[in-house]
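Exercise: predict the fold of this chain.
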Amino acid sequence: MRKVLTVLGLAGLSFLSACQTLDFSDPDSLRPSDNPVTVANVSRNDRLAQLGAQQHPRILATYGGEYKDAKLERMVAKIVGKLTTVSDKPDQTYRITILDSPNINAFALPGGYLYVTRGLLALANDSSEVAAVIAHEMGHVTANHGILRQEKEAETAIASRVATEVLHNEAAGREALIRGKLKLAQFSRNQELQADSIGIRMIGEAGYDPFASPRFLQSMEAYSSFRSISGATDASLDFLASHPATPQRIELAMGHARRIGAPGVGTTDRDSFLNGIDGLLYGDTPSEGYVRERVFIHPKLGLTFTAPAGFSIDNSATAVMASGPGEVAIRFDGGNLPSGMKLTDYISSGWVTGLDESSIRPITINGLPAATARASADRWQFDIVVIGAGDKVYRFLTAAPRGSNALMPASQSITQSFKMLTAAQKNAIKPLRIRVVTVRAGETVASLAERMYGTDRKLDIFRLINALPIGATVSAGDRVKLISE
């Protein structure tokens, strides 16, 4: 379905912020550096650091910039500092950036550039789990996995090109490419397993619970399953897209942990971690808009709409996607309306493939000028609605299989709910945040879950962010995470 919607060539909105990277390499540093290391002043004599510096701006753009929170930065700095003292390369400088993204990810670039998203910090439940992820990425750096992967990719491309161009054999070229990709996949898997081994040893030597690694891998598997069931579609920026977690990998991680000690060895440093993430922004930013159950609200653009009953919304940097029963999907995005252009002319300006030009007509939606049309491609039928607001145009594309009777009801439901917000309404909208609370006598998992905001699956999300399996209970005095405004 995503491929079908992409074929129609809809460009999305992207709202990004500039930022800088802080150097947390000093193990004794418990606060952000007064002299932050930025891309511009990375040592010119460090080839690996230059490679990382070249990619750093792209990482920031992809993940929405840096998340600024001094308390959170101190907590992460403490973890990185402890890991640096047990690194195989103690002279390696690490530059850690907390990314302002709800996606759950962490990764490394050559030269010691480490990244962790606030989404991952929200899912973790103690310092040892964060240490496990960061140590895994430090393992990639110390083992030069980034450079080795580039070399392996180059070898694969050369082998294919030689077979095709030199030997003039396209079939052999395709076979070489397929064989190379299989080798590369195995190479990547071996790198991940090696980074697991290095990382678990590091967190054990740093005094953390070595079983945090398999424990958090299980949490991320649960998160991935939840995304799949909930209808979320854009998981490409998440950890498991590039770090495949399998039962075998988790079992191998358990084996590495057992070689360090029995369960209970090491510290989790849970209280320090929970203090650090209390108040952490959860979910989308004001620049990307908020999803509240079936409602999408964008305070900066000043608009809102509601998906039809039974639909789930997935908000990404490029578009808002809503998916529902019967293979019905809706895409929303927007852009600038060319000066003086009518909305009916805008629809026919070439961005819709398979457009039925005879179906174009002007309409009005909640007092706003709009236009609608129909289109078709392959086995799909589409209803297109564009709405004008000043110099902006907002676009809804609803797709359903040919012959489906669900197309128009879904399109009309969501487009007729589109409204511009008043100043008071925009000011009243608050972002969601992680709040750490202490369980009181008589409180249960169910009663605590009822205090959650922003989701109609309160119990599922509460269990997910607190790593509580079905049947698990809480006791008075426990500290748990809630999502609140």
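Check your answer against the key: The chain has a mean pLDDT of 80.
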